[in-house]
Amino acid sequence: MPGMHHTARAAVRAHEHDYAPDTELPLGGYAAVLSSFGTGVAGAALLARRTGRRAPESLGTRELVLLTLATHKLARMVAKDAVTSPLRAPFARHRGTEAPAEMAEEPRGKGLRRAVGELLTCPFCLSPWAASALLVLHAASPATARTCLTGLSAVAGSDFLQYAYAAAQQRHSPQD
């Protein structure tokens, strides 16, 4: 798709810039973010055990595909959608747009604030959080989880079709 390669390359360059050798990493902030993730997962496991809920021993192919698509979409929604920008605003600086319907933001501040900003602006970084939340939901309420997974997967598929449609329009439209 036209523009997709350019966008992916720009994202890689921006990511490399964030971790340039002369960049001071907010290691204390990372430790706090990791601790909160671990605490959340452990808390969910403990709550599940106390309430008698159990995670499925395995996911079927259909559930795994839905979980994969839903994780992708949920992570991108949190990291890139305009309507979720109030969640990122205390931790990220708005820089415009980088793709159709996606915000371009960069982490701000130092320490924990920067670490949270890096997490909230990076769909790759958010994916483990999104997958874990969806798996906890699956263990707590399988029917609700299936509904959420199906809905988020449908939106991810729709996004792909929107990009394909836009690329087809560009390819077949008369050039100025």
Biggest beta sheet attributes: 2 strands, antiparallel
Structural class: mainly alpha
β-strand number: 2
Q: Which H/E pattern describes the elements?
A: HHHHEEHHH
How far the N terminus sits from the C terminus, by CA atoms, comes to 20 Å
Radius of gyration: 19 Å
Residue runs with pLDDT of under 50 for 5 or more positions: none
Arithmetic mean pLDDT = 87
Number of helices: 7
Strand content is 5-15%
> Which strands sit side by side, in order, in the main sheet?
1-2
Fraction of residues in helix: 55-70%
Shape type: flat
What count of domains describes the coordinates? 1
Description:
It is a single chain. With 176 residues, the protein is mostly helical. It has one domain. Helix content is 70%, strand content 8%. It has 7 helices and 2 strands, in the order H-H-H-H-E-E-H-H-H. It has helices at residues 4-18, 27-51, 61-80, 85-88, 111-120, 123-140, 142-172, and strands at 92-99, 102-107. It has a two-stranded antiparallel sheet. Helix 2 crosses helix 5, helix 2 (27-51) packs parallel to helix 6 (123-140) and helix 3 (61-80) crosses helix 6. The two termini are 20 Å apart. The model has no long low-confidence stretch (mean pLDDT 87).
